[in-house]
Amino acid sequence: MHAGPSTPTAMAAPTEKIAADNASIAKGSAADSDALSIIPNSEGVTEHELATLRHVRDKMPWQAFSIAVVEFAERWTYYGTTNVFNNYIRAPLPPGSTTGAVLRENRLVGVAGALGKGQQISFAIRTFNSFFVYVTPFLGAILADTKWGRYKTICVFTVVIFLGHIILVGSATPASLAHPDAALGLLVFAILVMAIGAGSIKSNVSPMIAEQYTGKLRKETLKSGETVIISPSITIQSIYLYFYMAINLGSTAAISAAFLARDRGYWVAYLVPTCVFAAVPVVLYACRGVYVKTPPRGSIILETFRVVGMCVAAQWARNPVAFVRGLRAEAFWDVAKPSSYSGGTMPAKITWDEEFVGEVARTIAACKVFLFFPIFWLCYSQIDGNLGTVAAGMRLNGTPNDLIQNLNPIAIIIMIPIFERGLFPLLRKHGINFSPIKRIAVGFLVAGLAMVYAAVLQKYLYDTSPCHDGRPSECVDAKKNPLSSPINVWVVSGPYILVGMAEIFANITSLEYAFTKAPVRMKSVVMAFSQLQTALASALNFALVSVNVEDKFQWLFASFGIIAALFAALFYWTFRDLDRAEIRLNAIGTGERAGFAGEAPAREGAAEKA
């Protein structure tokens, strides 16, 4: 528009003003129309209502809590056995013992043991166990998504776990321990069997527990008269928070396992978790008629690779910059979409529909998020081992140094209700969108703070230990009596609590993200990919053996702290676009696979019931 009309255009000015007014009205009408548009897959919720009304969670189905019992028992059996593997493998039988138990008169200073194979073999077997149990989820995921469905897969591999525990108990009997090499062979075999079973149910329990909730986005008026949005995503978040609480309740079994091994022997310590796990088949059978069960969709893994390969091939260029630019282009997936072809020009190898391409794109986007997690699990691994060594150099006052690690699950159990009932609703009430991407980034940052805390503590421990050789846990006097730092052992609780908080922000959210962002047909596979990151962290731990020594702990912890903070910033910067598209991503691919264009998608979670 001109600042002032000249004589020739004076008559045109009113026309231009009318046109501008009409455009403004049309624009306002379009905006109003957008605000009144209905959110897909909701019960009449508009964009305006979604943006202005307070969001709350729905009632959680009791079936979900019954499935949590499965994970509770599995974690009880896992931590109730693996947490005593170190002494069982490393230390020899105590004097006068045939079971690994310490005689009553020696319990103040004695250490339980059995095989006497030393620290190196113990570390190798324990690290292999951690690696293998987080690789095998792919087996259960593929079987569930393509052949058996999640419920049947969980039932089958529950039996596998139970058999593994029976072998483990047999390996620790007095008759077996009389032949340490044979007992070690049985132990390794039991670990393999249990890892296959535990990994295979791990990728299926998490999706199945959330599938029990089938509610939709809707409005509801509370008794106070306030109209709120009942949010499925917040409900799923709450389900996973309490699911993770069940996991950590199970992990506190390590407290009893240590005392059972010391006082009653290893076969008793392994028998108790076996008996606990025997309740799992009973629960699954009793509830078989009330579970929401997602049936298998057939083999889709090969089709997924074909879609990805077709799109990558279309962007191939000799110039690496151009190739990367093509991979990141918005139109990257178009070449695999049937709608990109007209008439009979569509390649014969395209055997999928339009929605499937969107599902593959969504799966790849979800999996990229998990690629940042190995650094998180490396920070977590420090509380499993190295911080126990840190505690051993401090003033114990009768507290076993390996007991402190149980502060991690205890802190999580305490914090989850506070976060679910207090912090998260408070943030929503004040309009703060604490989305999954933000929560994961904060989790990385808190894990980094835990490592910084540990590094500072280690520096003080070096300075205050009577032995200034960088190995406070080995400091003894001339009579081999321990000489400890005056720092109280409970000071080391800080990293355990901070890592627990980081798990709530990052790890629980990763479970939620894997479920909500993965298409129905690929949920178990995406969940397995998220679990794989723990295995990758275990593999990295093998490469860091040379620096996992006490005199280098300060710099090891500090390095992890700095890297975790950098990863937090890089993670959010990389996935900030996904953060903005949260609602849209949750709506993609929520239906059963449409057989033809235009078929209305079914509600996510809708499935056969037994």
UniProtKB/TrEMBL annotation:
InterPro entries: MFS_trans_sf, POT_fam. GO terms for molecular function: dipeptide transmembrane transporter activity. It is found in: Membrane. It is a multi-pass membrane protein. SUPFAM superfamilies: MFS general substrate transporter (SSF103473). The chain crosses the membrane at residues 123-144, 151-170, 182-201, 239-261, 267-287, 365-383, 403-419, 440-462, 487-506, 526-547, 553-575. One of its GO terms (cellular component) is plasma membrane. It holds the Pfam family PTR2. The keyword Membrane applies. Keywords: Membrane, Transmembrane, Transmembrane helix, Transport. Belongs to the major facilitator superfamily. Proton-dependent oligopeptide transporter (POT/PTR) (TC 2.A.17) family. This is Peptide/h+ symporter protein. It comes from Mycena belliarum.
